[in-house]
Structures are given as structure tokens and as C-alpha cells.
Amino acid sequence: MAEFTFYTVAMSRGQISRWALHEASADYEHVVFDWASKPANFADINPMEKVPTLVHHHEGHDHVITEAAAINHYLAETHPDAGLLPDTHEKAAYFRWLFFAAGPLEQAVMSKALGWKVPEGKSATAGFGSLDLALDALDGWLKVNDFAAGNRFTMADTYVGSQFIWGLRFGSIPERPSFKAYVERCTSRPKCIEAVAVDQKLIEADAQAG
To answer: If one looks up domain 4-82 in CATH, what number appears?
Structure first.
């Protein structure tokens, strides 16, 4: 048995954690399904029935990790030799932007995509403010830093970078020079290319089967 079992759907947020698994060089096997054919025991593993879901088979125990940002950081913690954890001086920015992307940025992007409008005067209550405000915050950082934690790639970039890779590809995030350059730095990484190829092959197989 592999050390990790990765539950995912090919065209989903699972791609975010697939990238992390490859950056960490984790020993994993995947269980790939579509939304109509979830494994019978999947609700027992993750009551939300969401992907990605990761199970770590460790010393006789099965540890379940959900939420892509948490999964990715967990993989960095369990694979310290991969060099994806922040050092002392990178840690503040690492956690700042990892959780910013998983919270305010994703909320702002989804709010706009789904046509949800924050009532006037309630932007502070909503937490994410507005999409423009969230993007301005990251734009300011990425204009002077190559990556989420500074000038070195860390595991935070598998999550923050994925938000921008998908956002620019599908138009949910407007293109800005700093975002485009950041995406190019992320997508040129060999492990990113490797992980994308796995999911692309699965997507193509689904298309042929359909």
C-alpha cells in the first residue's frame, strides 16, 4: 500500500493537491471518480463528499486531511526534505498568503462568479471586501516578490499559484502583469508539468469514454 491515498475528480480542485503531491515526491495512489460514481465509503471518509481528500496511512492509523490548502501544507510538513516549508523569515508571508488565497481571494472570486453582491457598506462584514481589493493586495506583493513567501518557491505556491493559474485560464481573475509572470514561474516547474500531465490524461480518458 502507498503511504497516501488521494481521492479526486480529474477536473476539480483536486488538481491543486495533485501538484503538491508531486512537489513533495509523495508515495501515493489515487482513487479517481466522477460526481455520479463516488466510492460507497467516501462519505465516511469525508462527510462533505468533496475533493480533494487525502488519507495518510501512518503507523497503523489512517489520518484524513481535507481542504486543499491544508492538504498541501500537510504534505510539506510530512516531507521536510522536499524543501517546501518556509524558513523563519518566510513563515509570516507563507501563512499570510496561503490563508488569504484560501479565504478572501477564493470567496471574492466565487462571489463574483455566482453573482453574489455584498450590500453597500457591508464589505468589511463580508471579510473579503471585494475582488478588486483582494487582487490589489496580491498584486502589490507579487510586484516585488517572485513567490508567496518571498523569492523562493514554497508549498504555499501550489495553492496560491493554482488560484491564479485557474483564474487567468477561465477569466475569473483579470490578467495583470504580476499575475501573468507569477503563473509563468509556477507552470514552468517540472513537478507542476508532471502533475498536470496526469490529470490531463484522466480528463482526456473521460472525454473519450463519454
So the answer is: 3.40.30.10
- Going by C-alpha positions, the residue among 4, 19, 9, 7 that lies closest to residue 163 is 19
**Residue range 91-191, CATH number:** 1.20.1050.10
- Angle between the 156-170 and 177-187 helix axes, to the nearest 10 degrees? 120
Residue 63 dihedral angles phi and psi, to the nearest 5°: -105, 125
The predicted model scores a pTM of: 0.96
DSSP letter string over the chain? --SEEEEE-SSSTHHHHHHHHHHTT--EEEEE--TTS--TTHHHH-TT--S-EEEEEETTEEEEEESHHHHHHHHHHH-GGG--S--TTTHHHHHHHHHHIIIIIHHHHHHHHTT--PPTT-HHHHSS--HHHHHHHHHHHHTT-SBTTBSS--THHHHHHHHHHHHHHHTSS---HHHHHHHHHHHTSHHHHHHHHHHHHHHHHHHHH-
pLDDT of 16-49, one tens digit each? 999 999 999 999 999 999 888 899 999 999 999 9
Q: Any idea where the domains of the chain sit in the sequence?
A: 4-82, 91-191
